[in-house]
Amino acid sequence: MKKWTTLLFVCLFAMILTACNSTATPVAKEEDTSKETSGESTKEPKVSELTLEEVYKNAMDRQNEIESLTSEVAMEQLITSGGEEIHVKSDMTMDMTIDPIAMYAKGTSTMVDPSTGEELPMGYEMYMVKDGFFMYDEMSAAWMKLPSDNYEEMLGQTAEQADASQQLEMLKSFIEDFKFEQNDDQYILTLDASGEKFNDFVLEQALGTGALSTDDQAILESIKFNDMSYVIVINKETFDTEEIKMVMELVEENSGESIVMNTFMTFTNINGIGAIEVPQEILDAATEVTF
Asked: Which of 113, 127, 138, 217 could be bridged to 134 by S-S, CB 3.0 to 4.6 A?
């Protein structure tokens, strides 16, 4: 399972948008399509003449203004290993500040036992702050302080990937793969990617951070992307990123293990999060653990 944890962490930060010089194709919002079947008229969407390059630049400028946000993540995974299929569903709400980088997350992960079909839910809660990485262990009903060996590297990787403009030149090879659409309120940017070009790109992005161990690099190099669909929804007025939808299918070539992951993320409460601090009672009670 460690190999998938490593890979999925990298992928969430590795794919960032690029630019091209065509305007967005108008599309109706999903809720508008019902009017057609009921006989009601459907108004034409407000058409923006901005190109994808201009939208991207505005979104990057806006990103540089973001100091904090709340993200809600819903994820479904189907892991095939040793002839068994393991279903995992996860829901998480995360508050994050950018400077300093800090995070508070709480959620539930539910795994379906492949032999019995029984659902095995497990809640989790965690802080990642300057004081360290703290996680609540539901089984022992106690807080743990995890090893800080790679803590600074993890923070450094997050900070580097947050500055997506650094990757713009590298992503020009994907220009022809983007679809650029719009409705009244949003720009919709879609990338369907797979094959050697995409595998090479993800590997280059991940290794370029310098945050992966030698073992993790070997794991990443053995994984092939069979398919990926990535959709980003940007608010027309504010240029905030409102939604990210991602579907990935990956195979570990040596073992044949595979994973299909469907992720949906929303971003709200932009610049509405105060300082994230670990409560004193957790600092006092947390037990340091080693692996």
From this structure: 127
